[in-house]
Amino acid sequence: MTAPTDDRQAPSARGGAVLEELQWRGLLSHTTDLEELHQLMDEGPVTFYLGCDPTAASLHVGHLVQLCLMRRLQEAGHHPVVLVGGATGLIGDPRPTSERTLNDPEVVAGWVQSIADQVRPFVSFEGENAARLVNNLDWFSGLGALDFLRDVGKHFRVNQMLKKDSVSARLESEQGISYTEFSYQILQGYDYWHLHIQEGVQLQIGGQDQWGNLMAGVDFVHRKEGRSVHAITSPLVTDSTGKKFGKSEGNAIWLDPEMTSAWTFFQFWLNAEDVKVVEYLKLFTFLTREQIDELAAQVEAEPFKRAAQRALAREMTAMVHGEQATADVEVAAAALFGKGSLREVPVNAILDATRELEGAEVRLGDTWVDVVVATGLADSRKSAKRFLAEGAISVNGETVSADGALEEGDLLGERVAVVKRGRKNMAAARVTSDPA
Fold it and tell me: Which residues does the annotation say bind ATP (predicted)?
């Protein structure tokens, strides 16, 4: 993944002024004492932390708000600490409806490394306010149960813990909640205290649904040390129906290119609804206010051009997958719709693009009539022959006839041919094996 290049970034507000920028972008949902935090930031750099639990092999776009928020705060001069939860990931934050499946420690350890690698490009680990990467397994692994109950547990009040939404929802369900998941907020609270003592952390950032856990840490530091620390959350990102981005909703777009290709990632943002695209530009991109205002005006005046969506898709794909992958995706998209040669598109880009197309498995040697029917571009052999006779069928941009057949030279990346009927009807003919 590659962070946005400097020429696309908005000028960074410094000190506490960054909070005003965050408010304009819609990035602040809950805060402790915003005025006090503003003053604290004006007095000097604040060390803050973001926690990421490895509950899957990859982060997804739902995490991007926090990753971008972390970058904005660092650019304002503040010091980021990135916590990858090797310990808390073994338990997981309680789900509202059911117990989590507990993963093997070896699996979680692998996820810790993957997520640490995914986070790195969003912040700088060099310079005066270089980011630091920590794993809470380092301090929890040496903490005994009796010490934890005596020194930590006594500072938490059960009546407050029961008020957490995910806990109260589970208590009212038939399944209830295990002590394991109920204790998660204590572990996260301990993280804040540990980082406050060891790293000087005074601020934690997180998603809106994490407010209860963040406050557990704020309260724990206050009870144990008599000091005030801060927390801010950002709103959960949703589509126009209110459905949030995330794996629990079954619509996860992963940051790992092996799990979600650059093509699919680009198309996800390109398909953003007009009513949401400006919100996404503010939340996720590093475009300036002037650039976003101009794109917002284009949404109002010429929504059919989808200029804002294209800018969003380009910015986000470059941020996560890099400039070259983004350029390849755009070249592939243009070639698929007749603006360029498919044979000049990088193989990986065309294979990713065609993976999303409707189509069918075919064999080398199949006639074009058979291929057209198999891919659904004609509902019968008779119709297929007619389309071919009319010159309406092309393969990789070249017109084919009824007396021809699929050959090895017709394949892109040795695996697929793009078959079109006219300009708009498109399918993928995928070769999985040689003819018997």
Answer: 247
